[in-house]
Specification:
This protein has ten helices and no strands. The longest helix is centred in the last third of the chain and has 27 residues, at about 200-225. Helix content is about 75%, strand content about 0%. The protein is globular and about 60 Å long. The mean pLDDT is about 95.
């Protein structure tokens, strides 16, 4: 992600990301899986950037933009989650058992993914683009960017402390992941020295992402195949990811560039 030094830069980057999303929605030359992945990542970046400038725009505009960005990301969530869960089963079990379990769960055992309702996605993207273009003129410089980043750091610290206390609470780990993702994209956009956090934050976000995917899978298995070998394997992997996430979280918070605040 290119570096931003003012809230005006953020709006420019938001519009560039939205233009890329619009192209991905209509680019039939690329696989649906790649397009869905890139669109969802772009929307997460957009929500992280919006958070950085929310003090520079009306509250109603920020709320609407964040809602649209979340709706567009979630529009592709169901297809993506089903594909990932089938892939996880293939990693946890031998091929024949993975196929049988995937069939029982109503998943595509071939791990195929299709782009859902592009017209709806185009509409959401167009509405969000128009809203960003209508934002009031940003100041050339803004101290709010670093302040927003520091607030994200505090949120990440609180998430770590909460998950360390409640290690079996999957929704809390998922909320922590959202904060880590926000930190990852904001740090990347701000550049040095903030981007020193990016390598560890990226690894932590990936670990928490797999934890969330396993959480969704174990919930599904508990409904259909409680007590099965598949459920036990998924639960064991999920527990391992939560412990790894806490180790990475501790490493992130101990990074020299991470603000030393418990506020």
């Amino acid at each position: 992600m290119e570096r931003v030094t003012s809230s005006k830069d953020v709006r420019t980057l938001l519009l560039r990301l939205l233009a890329e999303v619009a192209r991905d929605i209509g680019d039939e030359r690329r696989s649906p899986e790649d397009r869905i992945h890139d669109i969802r990542v772009a929307m997460k970046k957009i929500r992280a950037l919006l958070r950085m400038v929310r003090s520079d725009i009306p509250k109603t505009s920020y709320a609407k933009a964040d809602e649209l960005a979340g709706s567009l990301k979630n529009h592709f969530g169901q297809a993506r989650d089903a594909s990932v869960q089938a892939a996880l089963l293939a990693d946890l079990l031998d091929q024949s058992e993975a196929v049988a379990v995937a069939t029982t769960l109503g998943l595509d055992a071939q791990n195929e993914i299709s782009l859902p309702h592009p017209s709806r996605a185009c509409d959401l993207c167009s509405r969000l683009t128009a809203l960003v273009k209508a934002f009031p003129s940003f100041p050339q410089e803004s101290s709010s960017l670093e302040a927003a980043w520091r607030e994200t750091c505090r949120a990440v610290r609180r998430g770590f402390q909460t998950c360390r206390t409640h290690r079996q609470d999957d929704p809390l780990f998922h909320e922590w992941r959202k904060r880590v993702k926000r930190l990852l994209y904001q740090s990347s956009a701000l550049g040095p020295p903030f981007d020193a956090l990016v390598p560890t934050a990226d690894c932590l976000a990936s670990t928490l992402g797999t934890h969330h995917d396993l959480s969704l899978l174990t919930d599904r298995l508990a409904d259909c195949l409680a007590g099965s070998r598949a459920e036990q394997a998924a639960l064991a992997q999920k527990a391992a990811r939560s412990e790894r996430a806490l180790k990475l979280g501790r490493k992130l918070l101990n990074t020299n560039e991470f603000p030393n605040t418990n506020a």
